[in-house]
Amino acid sequence: MLIVMHHSANEQEIEQVKQAVKDMGLQAEPIPGSERTAIGVLGNRGYVDDATIRNLPGVREVIHVSKPYKLVSRDFHPQATVVKVGGVAVGDGQPPVMMAGPCSIESELQMMESAKVVKQAGANILRGGAFKPRTGPHSFQGLGVDGLKLLRQAGDEVGMPVVTEVMRIGQLDDVCRYADVLQIGARNMQNFDLLKEVGKLSHPVLLKRGMSATIEEFLAAAEYIVAEGNDQVILCERGIRTFEKATRNTLDLSVVPLVRSMSHLPIIVDPSHATGIRDLVPVMSKAAMVAGAHGLMVEVHHDPAKALCDGAQSLNGPEFSRLMAELQQLQSCLMSAENSA
Amino acid sequence: MLIVMHHSANEQEIEQVKQAVKDMGLQAEPIPGSERTAIGVLGNRGYVDDATIRNLPGVREVIHVSKPYKLVSRDFHPQATVVKVGGVAVGDGQPPVMMAGPCSIESELQMMESAKVVKQAGANILRGGAFKPRTGPHSFQGLGVDGLKLLRQAGDEVGMPVVTEVMRIGQLDDVCRYADVLQIGARNMQNFDLLKEVGKLSHPVLLKRGMSATIEEFLAAAEYIVAEGNDQVILCERGIRTFEKATRNTLDLSVVPLVRSMSHLPIIVDPSHATGIRDLVPVMSKAAMVAGAHGLMVEVHHDPAKALCDGAQSLNGPEFSRLMAELQQLQSCLMSAENSA
Amino acid sequence: MLIVMHHSANEQEIEQVKQAVKDMGLQAEPIPGSERTAIGVLGNRGYVDDATIRNLPGVREVIHVSKPYKLVSRDFHPQATVVKVGGVAVGDGQPPVMMAGPCSIESELQMMESAKVVKQAGANILRGGAFKPRTGPHSFQGLGVDGLKLLRQAGDEVGMPVVTEVMRIGQLDDVCRYADVLQIGARNMQNFDLLKEVGKLSHPVLLKRGMSATIEEFLAAAEYIVAEGNDQVILCERGIRTFEKATRNTLDLSVVPLVRSMSHLPIIVDPSHATGIRDLVPVMSKAAMVAGAHGLMVEVHHDPAKALCDGAQSLNGPEFSRLMAELQQLQSCLMSAENSA
Amino acid sequence: MLIVMHHSANEQEIEQVKQAVKDMGLQAEPIPGSERTAIGVLGNRGYVDDATIRNLPGVREVIHVSKPYKLVSRDFHPQATVVKVGGVAVGDGQPPVMMAGPCSIESELQMMESAKVVKQAGANILRGGAFKPRTGPHSFQGLGVDGLKLLRQAGDEVGMPVVTEVMRIGQLDDVCRYADVLQIGARNMQNFDLLKEVGKLSHPVLLKRGMSATIEEFLAAAEYIVAEGNDQVILCERGIRTFEKATRNTLDLSVVPLVRSMSHLPIIVDPSHATGIRDLVPVMSKAAMVAGAHGLMVEVHHDPAKALCDGAQSLNGPEFSRLMAELQQLQSCLMSAENSA
Helix (H, G, I), strand (E, B), or coil: what is residue A127? Predict the structure, then answer.
């Protein structure tokens, strides 16, 4: 931590700050400059709360050097984490994972048809929402536990592990019984109690970035899970909120290489929620792969025009098959390029 | 809902859209223009999901006219809602409510001292956090139920109703036992399960705006609570996330008159979290009152330099007393102005 | 400047950074911590370009302590600047300035009527746009020099100094001939050539904040003007761009007390452009005054329903008179409060 | 345009709105709904200014259907525009254009060395800044006309057309004499006078997206240029401003396929300014190509550690050569995929 004093701060103010640092059990190291004094804080082993210092007289600014996460950082843990989901491995050195399926589980027919479609096209994890977070209470809210059962049944039928969103602690027992991966949605990225609870479990977790979360907050949220003992965390970029309204959100692809350098956890991309526009899903899926994503999560519905949720961003079967073929081609191209390098 | 067709959309595409609207049980009314056709959708009694229409061939854009909320809108419910908290009334025509107290409950001494300070200065609801949402897992997380008891005890001692944050459904029993108002924090504004649960209770709810929530989403979140039967909802603006980093968040005061015109629910302002800077709290408190806020929520600590949480934005006793005196003066000035108008 | 090294940075990398700092003619002061080394940079007299250091091997982050402005900072220049516009003084200790008038100058009749309206209500500077920046080329672009003449004529008639926007260097001669204050619009806040040119003149300048400008960038833009010799700069907050679409922009009132503490220049608020909604203008005007604004800039049109530009956010005569009366009452209330304190 | 009335709007208010529409020379078509009336506005041939209608009594909202641009829209002009720069063609069906070179022109040696580096690697347009927009006045501001001459000389030497930024109208003569493409920077995207002037010239224009510009505003800015007669406009995405601070800006790659569907103008991507981080430039360059960009603009310096501007985001020669080789491989892969489709 670096404490920057005002140009006009006097000796007494500087002394008071030094004392406050010592009261925290840390060392204070003044760095006199030509225009002002700064005070380096040494001895801390992690993030320091600056509450008792920030507003002392003469203090202009407090600058944090340590981050609010450590267990998930590559700086302290250089080796990549590979998350195992059934027989599927997600992370560095693994083929990209393809999670696909409908936004929400609507019926046995729909779930089964959609599962066959994504399986045939080559996806390896099946998605489907049983508990749906909707902006307003008057929209379809999901089938609940009945949906979980349909998802499990469809996954078993086609031989794919399944991922679904858990919205609250009380649902964890049910979701753990039927699902292989627990998804924490963007709106719950800072539902810290939920994060802690999934941290105590052994199920892999898919953690989506909050719609206005910084990368630092995203990694700090993952830290909550890992700190409880569960390091099987897959991060997921799903678009952030900006002033632009032509797309549902703004897909932030730079986060992929950045997170890969800052953390050892795998990161995938959800182009469906990020753009909200079906026509953009294939092209942004390919861009995400090239940006280094460890996989994708794509909404597929066997009949999008009849979907109860997010039909406008869902691919149908043929569209998804075409995308998978293109991704395969792109992937083999990227790999041959890497080998020749 | 208005469906705008592409300039070059043909008859067949227009027919297909009309059919899709009819399949939803609604009427389709084409509005031919000089450059393109638009199709008005009639007959809906609320928000319409556009999923099955947005991506039909020839459709350029779907524009929503209905909002995802209705019960909380002043358009359909012109009379103001006054929320009752113990003997305190919050809303149109009532004196502004002053909620004050420490960010987090730390000890009996701290809670009691802070309660006396805010009581003496004239606050009428006591706040204090027992369950704390913190960005990283390595920060102080609150005293939990022990904190709730200390809060209740302090409130009883000084004779004030108390408000505290509930972070998950499992905490509701405890929080309802000890608190008079249930606070839903910004990070949980779209924790829809939690919203539904508090909607089934009779306790008043203080709903904070999410840090990147639009006004429409804010009101839709309140709709979740009211739709379950609990209309005792107080809205709270606490700053939104923008590109500006000089303040913790950006206080959006325009939301106060806007929400007052759009909804019958009362709205208060939290200048402490909005700015994150102690020196800005008094001035922005006064600005909020002038903007029409039905009250304020202010962080006060009897000894901010020792606070475990948010000390840098907390007022101490004398500062809060001075603010209360200034607010009183401002308030009587505003009222005399109103009377003379 | 503080250079933060990676946890795993080695001696050689640290030496390379120290050498790079010395090559810039500055001192490097290593601060070894328990988890990583940081290197303080000393000896600079202002902002340091970090380009040659930021990406050296082993460097995690470069943190700036100096700001890209100095002449406009209160830290180095504590005494408030009072800007003189004809007989009107703007700044600390002065009565709030009221700039009012139509968005764009449309005709002699409109300009004269509007001037009378604002004069009678008590405004002291007349505004009117002759050169209009419009999002699309198919909207009304202003009357140009003919408009300037009408503005001057109206100002002379009612005895008020006038302010108008200058959009490019080539217009400066004309605008200086007819106007008392040169307005730099939000879209030109970083038109650095224009800033430098007005910096060489003696006319006071009204500098509007860019719609996505940080406070630091805002003050750095003012620094461009002052660095050329013209310290007669009035800053103006006019709303920033956020995700919220219910208002035209988001009025950021915290910027008023913040800029007052960071800079010695006066700052006013434009609630008309900030909100874009007529009904919000009076209430946000009052909130701005309470937040400490040195004045306001308000759009007034004698017949808003016929305005060629921004009619929806313009007050008419009676509305503006009422606002002025309310502001006067508020102001005397604030002053009596201050005196009694 | 669609005018949405309040739920409680009465007959008289509806009549008044209809009259106001007729006064604008347009037709008003009421669309009675079950909960409110909307009024369709017909007969307009382009964007309609809503100023006189938006705030009439009973009006809740005005929704625009027409866009503030038309000449640049693909809706009205389906055929792609291919921009010619010397022998280089930019647009649909052309090989991607590679613009590369230093941020700012610093010396003959630097410009010549950098030109050779990018030429050898396979770039086809040379970039270099002679007039530099810098946030603060105390940073290097560029060599001006001397820089232009060095750029021209280097371009001639290696046989490449050159692109450079023009910041004001007064520079146009000089820039046109020495440069082949006129770059309008992000800060000047809404410098409408400058847009109009370059619209009167025959030089191709590279228009960068403003840092908080919506896609609609971006296209409306291009409309300014095309409306004056110059349709040789290349759009450029260079990152937008969001709350994220880990990157200089947030690269918005979805804008590429969106603009390609909305407009017939070519669009390229500048990953250097978008990310501000050298290590991200290659990976985001490749992602941009896959997203469908018609080309790239990349900062290359023969010795970035000594660059006077943006060294931290500049590639050196070997890095750029490697990137070009990877892009070539990627491109041939994409093309063979397209051919086999």
Answer: strand
DSSP secondary-structure letter at B145? H
Q: Where in chain B is the domain with CATH 3.20.20.70?
A: 83-340
Indicate if the pLDDT at residue B64 is higher than 90. no
Assess: ipTM above 0.85.
yes
Q: Which of D254, D283, D288 lies at the smallest CB-CB distance from A251?
A: D254
Out of D65, D66, D243, whose CB is closest to B243? Answer: D243
Q: Token pair for residue B241? A: 């996330």
Q: Please give the distance of CA B261 from its chain centroid, rounded to a whole number.
A: 15
Backbone angles phi, psi at A28, to 5 degrees: -115, 125
Q: Which residues of C258-282 are buried (b: 16+ CB within 10 A; e: fewer)?
A: bbbebbbbbbbbbbbbbbbbbbbbb
3.30.160.100, 3.40.50.300, 3.40.50.150, 3.20.20.70: CATH of B83-340: 3.20.20.70
What whole-number distance in Å separates Cα of residue D212 and Cα of residue C209? 13
Element (H, E) at B37: strand B37-42
Q: Which pLDDT belongs to residue D88?
A: 96
Residue D25: pLDDT band by 50, 70, 90 thresholds? confident
Task: Give exposure, D290-308, as e/b (b: 16+ Cβ within 10 Å).
Answer: bbbbbbbbbbbbbbbbebb
Residues in chain D whose beta carbon is closer than 8 A to a beta carbon of chain A? 212, 214-216, 240, 242-247, 250-254, 257-258, 261, 274-275, 277, 279-280, 283-284, 286-292, 326, 329-330, 333-334, 337, 340-341
> What is residue D340's predicted lDDT score, i.e. its pLDDT?
67
- From chain C, pick out residues whose CB is under 8 angstroms from the CB of D229: none
Cα–Cα distance, C250 to C261 (Å, whole number): 22
- What are the start and end residues of each CATH 3.30.70.1140 domain in chain A? 2-63
Cβ separation C33–A65 shorter than 8 A: yes
User: Residue C290 carries which side chain, given as an amino acid letter?
Assistant: V
> Interhelix angle for B317-340 vs C317-340, to 10°?
140
Integer Cα distance of A323 and A319 in angstroms: 6
D244-265 pLDDT tens trace: 988 999 999 999 999 999 999 9
CA B268 to mean position of chain CA atoms: 8
pLDDT digits (tens, 9 = 90+) for A64-109: 777 888 899 998 888 999 999 999 999 999 999 999 999 999 999 9
- The answer to whether the CB atoms of B31 and D45 lie below 8 A apart is no
**Inter-chain CB proximity A220 and B135 less than 8 Å:** yes
Q: What is the pLDDT of residues A252-261, one digit of tens each?
A: 999 999 999 9
Torsion angle of C-alpha atoms B317, B318, B319, B321, degrees rounded to 10 = 90
* CA A128 – CA A100 distance, rounded (Å): 8
DSSP letter, residue C170: G
Cα A65 to Cα A42: distance, rounded to the nearest angstrom: 11
Percent of chain A whose predicted confidence (pLDDT) is above 90: 65
Check residue D234 and give its pLDDT. 98
Confidence of residue D115 (pLDDT cuts 50, 70, 90): very high
Distance CA B253, CA B240 (A): 10
Architecture of domain C2-63: 2-Layer Sandwich (3.30)
Q: Left if phi > 0, otherwise alpha if psi is -120 to 50, otherwise beta: which for B209?
A: beta
Distance between B276 CA and the closest CA of chain C, angstroms? 11
Q: Answer whether C69's CB lies under 8 Å from C105's CB.
A: no
> Residue D113, Cβ neighbours under 10 Å: how many?
16
For residue range D171-230, list pLDDT tens digits in order.
999 999 999 999 999 999 999 999 999 999 999 999 999 999 999 999 999 999 999 999
Confidence bin at A341 (pLDDT 50/70/90) = low
